[in-house]
Amino acid sequence: xxxxxxxxxxxxxxxxxxxxxxxxxxxxxxxxxxxxxxxxxxxxxxxxxxxxxxxxxxxxxxxxxxxxxxxxxxxxxxxxxxxxxxxxxxxxxxxxxxxxxxxxxxxxxxxxxxxxxxxxxxxxxxxxxxxxxxxxxxxxxxxxxxxxxxxxxxxxxxxxxxxxxxxxxxxxxxxxxxxxxxxxxxxxxxxxxxxxxxxxxxxxxxxxxxxxxxxxxxxxxxxxxxxxxxxxxxxxxxxxxxxxxxxxxxxxxxxxxxxxxxxxxxxxxxxxxxxxxxxxxxxxxxxxxxxxxxxxxxxxxxxxxxxxxxxxxxxxxxxxxxxxxxxxxxxxxxxxxxxxxxxxxxxxxxxxxxxxxxxxxxxxxxxxxxxxx
Length: 373
Hints:
Blueprint: E1 3-10, H1 17-33, E2 38-45, H2 52-61, H3 72-82, E3 87-90, H4 96-104, E4 110-114, H5 119-126, H6 135-152, E5 155-158, H7 161-171, E6 177-178, E7 202-206, H8 211-223, E8 231-236, H9 246-253, E9 261-266, H10 272-277, E10 280-283, H11 293-300, E11 304-307, H12 309-312, H13 319-322, E12 323-325, H14 329-341, H15 349-359, H16 365-372
Parallel strand pairs: 1-2, 1-3, 3-4, 4-5, 5-6, 7-8, 7-10, 8-9, 10-11, 11-12
Helix pairs in contact: 3-4, 4-6, 5-6, 11-15
């Protein structure tokens, strides 16, 4: 069985959540078909800077359903290549036009589409400002491609029941398989730390500079941070932009947070030492689609996790054993203060066990096999 994977970009720097998921998909598919039987078509390669003309092309083609980077020429290339493959794995539903063109040109292999989110919801959150003209280009384009992915793909994969229900509500089709966010396990150890969380715990927020992440951490810094005694790290791609945010600089200088320390770390190539040092992961995310990759990664590292229902969406576990599920300021304050008053192991064995048994890539192989095999 030969598989052609259509991916968004070849990442050269710190991969974001979606690209981490794409890499996991590649690794699992290699286990199923063999590395020699897998080829990848990248829509973007970060090693090559796009010209102004390429940017303009992206804008001009978007109203016709070609998401940024795709062009009629590239879709024709993919269709031409596909005849040599048994399966075309479209790694993002925003490339649904590829599934459409494959089926309309008589491709007889299997087209599989992986929904990392319901992209219409994702991009509505990303371009939440209705005065931004890009919103009126990107969101309709995403909606059209989500619909084409549902209509033309032979098999579809969604992350969670929530996404599956949303896809059925919008486009009238349930996913053929639910495969949650997962990671290739990179935290296997003979021994894990037995140190307890600090009296003044180190709390880490992880997330790229994205509206839902920025809104969540701003809410936390303004409302929760003044009421707790913690050290705070904000970590993520592009998060250096927060250093100029008025709400962050004002809060750091203001009297209510005199007992707190805030560090902003951006574009860190190796997050592992930061995960190991953190006492608690705090994930105040209030909107989105799909499942949060940062939650899965936190489980992999065996962390105590305090997050919102959105941060936990799609994960099946006992929140109290892993940390806490919080909706209000008081919920967060009480959960954090409980750690301050009653230190517990920095390595949460329950979180780690949940990851190994439910969200490691090794557990996803048979689910993928059912879809592509």
